[in-house]
Amino acid sequence: MTLTSFGPANRIQRSAETHPLTWRLRDDGEAVWLDEYQAKNGYAAARKAFADMAADDIVQTVKDAGLKGRGGAGFPTGVKWGLMPKDESINIRYLLCNADEMEPNTWKDRMLMEQLPHLLIEGMLISARALKTYRGYIFLRGEYTTAAKHLNRAVEEAKAAGLLGKNILGSGFDFELFVHTGAGRYICGEETALINSLEGRRANPRSKPPFPAAVGVWGKPTCVNNVETLCNVPAIIADGVDWYKSLARDGSEDMGTKLMGFSGKVKNPGLWELPFGVTARELFEDYAGGMRDGYKLKCWQPGGAGTGFLLPEHLDAQMYAGGIAKVGTRMGTGLAMAVDDSVNMVSLLRNMEQFFSRESCGFCTPCRDGLPWSVKLLMAIEKGQGQPGDIETLLGLVGFLGPGKTFCAHAPGAVEPLGSAIKYFRPEFEAGIAPTRAGDLNQVVTPTMVGA
């Protein structure tokens, strides 16, 4: 798997004007350490924010730029920042970076942390200044050992240079930053489960309200942002709102650029920084090179295992939240997966639902019991032992576990690909239903009976 930000046939080169996230990357894939980062204008945005901007000005600039969360939910970052209390007497606040990145088929944050650790630190430093947080944590997926090593080194470099710690840049502002390695749980991608885990508790999501901005880690105001989200902040502060908005393609309601990718049996699997609004077809054909010889595109997911399947005819959709919503699913993390024509959809869904079932925190009944139920039915269908009514039961579970039916978004994301797979490839599921025996009195479960 490679990373490149080059365009078709390498005609478009990375530059600070067009690739704010990746222009500093080294061609050899090695990490950019402090001296090189500063030589490439690193920490200039932080110096500008500390010298020339009040905290509220930073928040307003990020809000005006239209930056949205890059972890999958797409909530406006400036609005989220604005929820933090204005009361100056609350002097203990926290900034958390969600670096758990356990979404299958997603590795964008890993690249940023391994190769550009100081970009994340600068983004957190500016954000801490805006939010008046005195301490920050990077909550890192446990398996990301190289990222942990590089981030810890970068934190020490920043401390030695006076960019972290006490009286940063002579401003009187203090900010400590720590790398916290998690135990490897998908549910920690949910911000309140992350907070519980950071506190040493079981990683269950919390009731909201209260929201973390009011009652977060250790009961104090807390803001949680994704790695890629925070990495956008320096460029916005350095080059301004109008420039940032100009990066997106016409028609996109999302601003700036996005790390997007394609995996599967494509000729050039990889990761690229592209403007919001690029079509999925451009991403698939011009960057990923289309399918390998001998394979045909059957369907694709736009942004991780928790997004619905789309068909080849949907490739003309623009890659931004609203553009993908028009064809029936979510953009998610923006890293797409191509499914080739050799893949059986029942087997693929069984594998996915096993993952989501295993990663459920078990707190609420629909998720705890519904996901294993879907796995049991899919396993039977995969073996050709499905019973009449099993597909309807699966569709009923899709309804039972949908948005608003569970404690957090884990189950809705888990069943979205299941519902879309049955929608587009129902004959493959029907092929796994055993022939009905004469006199068979097994009850056929209908969607009405299971609440669909």
Tags for this entry?
quinone; 3 domains; four-stranded parallel sheet; oxidoreductase; disordered C terminus; 452 residues; five-stranded mixed sheet; Rossmann fold; alpha/beta; 16 helices; de novo design (two linked rop proteins); globular; Ubiquitin-like (UB roll); NADH-UbQ_OxRdtase_51kDa_CS
Percent of residues in beta strands: 5-15%
Q: In order across it, which strands form the biggest sheet?
A: 1-7-6-9-8
CATH architecture level-2 label of the largest domain:
3-Layer(aba) Sandwich
Number of strands: 9
Overall outline: globular
Low-confidence segments, given as residue ranges, are 1-11, 437-452
Q: Please state the oligomeric state of the protein chains shown.
A: single chain
What CATH calls the topology of the largest domain is Rossmann fold
CATH class of the largest domain: Alpha Beta
Instruction: Estimate the mean pLDDT confidence.
Output: 92
Q: What share of residues is helical?
A: 25-40%
Give a quick account of the main beta sheet: strands, pairing sense, barrel closure: 5 strands, mixed
Number of helices: 16
Structural class: alpha/beta
In CATH, what is the homologous superfamily of the largest domain? NADH-ubiquinone oxidoreductase 51kDa subunit
In total, the number of domains comes to 3
Question: What is the C-alpha radius of gyration, as a whole number of Å?
Answer: 23 Å
Domain NADH-ubiquinone oxidoreductase 51kDa subunit iron-sulphur binding: 346-391
Cofactor: [4Fe-4S] cluster; FMN
Function: NDH-1 shuttles electrons from NADH, via FMN and iron-sulfur (Fe-S) centers, to quinones in the respiratory chain.
InterPro entries: NADH-UbQ_OxRdtase_51kDa_CS (IPR001949), NADH-UbQ_OxRdtase_suF (IPR011537), Nuo51_FMN-bd (IPR011538), Nuo51_FMN-bd_sf (IPR037225), Nuop51_4Fe4S-bd (IPR019575), Nuop51_4Fe4S-bd_sf (IPR037207)
